[in-house]
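[agent] plan:
  1. take the single chain provided in the ticket
  2. run structure prediction with default settings
  3. attach structure tokens to the ticket
  4. add a short note for the reviewer (M.T.)
[agent] executing step 1
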Amino acid sequence: MSTLAEARSAASPEARHEARTTPFTRTLHTEWIKFRSLRSTWYTLAGLALAGLGITALGMGSVGAEYAGLTDAERLDWDPTSQSLTTYLVAQLIIGVLGILVVTSEYATGLIQTSLAATPRRHRLLAAKAVLVTVVAAVAGQTLMFASFFLGQAMLGTQGVPNASISDPGVLSAVVGGGVYLAAISLLALALGVILRATAGALATLVAIIFLIPGFAGLLPGWLGWLLDFWPTLGAAEVLATVPDPDYPAPWLNLAGMCLGVAATLAVAFVLFRRRDV
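[agent] step 2 finished; step 3 output follows
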């Protein structure tokens, strides 16, 4: 009995901590180590910050002249919050690249085989990647949205243009909604990376979902016009505005619908990830 007690007391703190953690926690920790050790991760996050704030600064620099040319009726729909959050257009693409690389970088280097050998339960491995990407994207996206908002409103103030405060009605929900939207995009990108297993293919598909199909809406035949009413990224992006769009009167419902679509895509990714050989 004393020998057992001595063995327990001699156990290192690391060993005791290892014994208390769950298999999923250990897998998540391993994924975090891999994530932070990749240079591409930090380059992508740095690009998100620089490009996001740079676009905000460039875009808001000419807003004063734009506002001066508006009619009185147009000024009623002036939305300074939305003006300073337009950086999401590029941010969603950069943060999508981050979600894709978490998966496709392992396929490109062959590290995915090592990961599967260390974590044979594939659903646990993919769930850990999904949680990691969602948390990182939510923190990075939310930080960018708040920084862009405050930078944009400060620049509006220097130009004598009506600006917004974070305490104004609808402003905080718009900024927070931008972070939620970017987190959903990152999870969609992760799922596409799992399904296609190639960075170029997943990125091309993501660009088509975000930009091409909505951009070519006018070329769609009339019988497909209804599709755009439910296209996820169109209505969901309206959560970043404080002035309602008549075409999307309930943007948070659109965002919820987009999240359901992302969940369905992720479910397909889980099924394929478990059934494939690699």
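[agent] step 4 note for reviewer: The CA atoms of residues 43 and 53 lie 15 Å apart.
[agent] ticket updated
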